[in-house]
Write a structure and sequence with these properties.
- This protein has helices spanning 46-52, 76-81, 252-265, 282-287, 306-310, 329-337, 416-419, 439-447; strands at 56-66, 90-103, 108-112, 119-125, 131-140, 145-149, 171-176, 184-195, 206-209, 221-223, 229-236, 247-251, 275-279, 296-301, 317-321, 324-325, 344-345, 347-351, 354-357, 361-362, 388-392, 406-411, 427-431, 434-435, 453-459, 462-468.
- With 469 residues, it is mostly beta strands.
- It has three domains: 1-268, Thrombin, subunit H (Beta Barrel), CATH 2.40.10.120; 275-362, PDZ domain (Pdz3 Domain), CATH 2.30.42.10; 383-468, Roll (Pdz3 Domain).
Length: 469
């Protein structure tokens, strides 16, 4: 999906080059959305924009990147024998983007991380053409948010809105500097909210808009009709390099959280619950006997983690975080990933079909335990898992003594077990949410079932639920 090097998609700013910039959201009016009426003889956004536009700036950078080359060129004998001339190992880069002044007193500007990547010199140009040297305060590539700072003199800041209050269909206005054209304004509507799983950033919860986006708009402002900052333009989806009306902005509530950490620490210190997750799909919902169709399934809990101490278990389905519904695993990861170490969060979980609320869980950095794969063993068959051989975890396996379950010794490619998702080296921890510690218990559970089999499986460092039909 949208990423700088992804096929058929344009994202990220690469100024002064024909590559289309990502993260630049600008909403076009006219064909995209009607302009609301503000009274008088003709509708106009001009009064609002007069107050907003001084806070949106042009960001130009210069830097260097290392040039990749064949390792043979670093061999002195090779270079001498073939008389290879010296070549520069770095090349200069330039980029153009946008930014938003959010704290005039401290001279803080929010922009995109990719706008200032590799930057050795950053120049900010204000609406009145005044140019200021900027320094990088902090960059968070996971959310594509960066904070830079300029001298706090004669600046105008843009007030924060509440991106959580946006609704699909709300009018929004984008401001930026496409192709270096200063102070360009376009309008449109919010097309969708909470977009994730796009592969643009590590943490995604984008505002989607029918913005017309061009290089140079990355890091620009997305504002509501009251002139409040609700998003930071960051990417587009395109198969041609031009806008097709699908653009994405980072919600300001997310960007603001990141900005505050960058301003305070120069980096983002993220907390983790200590769980591995997967989406709740219709098959899993049926297997769990749930009416819910959206949520994140806990497939593994790290021993000693905040999640373990709070009582979370594999098979729990998280349906809300701090009262907000959870759509899928990516949604939950994004929200948890934006929490600071020490923050507390309330999860609502479904456990065996019963809705309950967990106590507040203190978030802290956690690392999942490493569970390696191992193979080999004796042959065993099961009617619903045809093509797979199961056995007890052998002593030579790194997982022996670390976990209880049954190992998949072999899976025939194309077999029923293969099609159901089992692979050699998997370790089955439970069958229909009943833990199994050896082959006898495993077969006792599987052989008595006449319907689909729900397997909780460890694979390498990850865990998942598999529905075998």
């Amino acid at each position: 999906m949208p990423h700088e090097n992804s096929k058929g998609v344009t994202s990220r700013d690469v100024p002064r080059a024909p590559i289309i910039a990502a993260a630049l959201l600008l909403l076009t009016g006219g064909a995209h959305a009607a302009v609301p009426w503000f009274g008088g003889e003709t509708p106009s956004l001009a009064p609002m924009l007069e107050k907003v536009m001084p806070a949106v700036v042009n960001v130009a950078t210069e830097g260097k990147v290392r040039v990749g080359r064949n390792p043979l060129l670093d061999d002195p004998l090779f270079r001498h024998f073939f008389d290879v001339p010296d070549e520069p190992r770095e090349r200069k880069t330039q980029s153009l983007g946008s930014g938003v002044i959010v704290d005039a007193g401290r001279g803080l500007i929010i922009t995109n991380a990719h706008v200032v990547a590799n930057a050795e010199h950053i120049t900010v140009k204000l609406r009145n053409s005044r140019k200021l040297d900027a320094k990088r305060v902090g960059v968070d590539a996971e959310t594509d948010v960066a904070v830079i700072q300029v001298p706090a003199e004669g600046l105008t800041a843009l007030g924060f809105g509440d991106s959580d209050g946006l609704k699909v269909g709300d009018f929004v206005v984008a401001i930026g500097n496409p192709f270096g054209l200063d102070q360009t304004v376009t309008s449109g509507i919010v097309s969708a909210l909470g977009r994730s799983g796009l592969g643009i950033e590590g943490y995604e919860e984008f505002i989607q808009t029918d913005a017309s986006i061009n290089p140079g708009n990355s890091g620009g402002a997305l504002v509501d009709l009251q002139g409040r900052l609700v998003g930071i333009n960051t990417a587009i989806f395109s198969q041609s390099g031009g806008s097709i009306g699908i653009g994405f902005a980072i919600p300001i509530n997310v960007a603001r959280q990141v900005m505050e950490q960058l301003a305070q620490h120069g980096e983002v210190k993220r907390g983790q619950l200590g769980v591995q997750l997967q989406d709740l799909d219709p098959d899993l919902a049926e297997a769990f006997d749930l009416n819910e169709q959206e949520g994140a399934v806990v497939v593994n809990v790290v021993e000693g983690s905040p999640a373990a101490k709070a009582g979370l278990k594999a098979g729990d389905v998280v349906v809300a975080v701090n009262g907000r519904p959870v759509r899928n695993a990516s949604d939950l990861r994004s929200r948890v990933g934006l929490l600071r170490i020490g923050d507390k969060v309330t999860l609502e979980v479904l456990r065996k079909g019963l809705l309950g609320k967990n106590d507040r869980v203190q978030i802290s950095a956690a690392v999942a335990p490493k569970i390696d794969q191992a193979t080999s063993g004796s042959a065993l068959q099961n009617p619903r898992l045809e093509g797979a051989r199961f056995g007890d975890i052998p002593e030579r396996s790194p997982a022996h003594g670390e976990v209880e379950g049954v190992m998949v010794y072999e899976v025939k490619r194309g077999s029923r077990a293969w099609r159901n998702g089992l692979r050699e080296g998997d370790i089955v921890l439970s069958v229909n949410q009943v833990p199994v510690s050896n082959l006898k218990e495993f077969l006792g559970q599987v052989n008595r079932l006449e319907s689909a089999v729900l397997l909780h499986v460890l694979r390498g460092n990850s865990a998942a639920f598999i529905v075998a039909r």
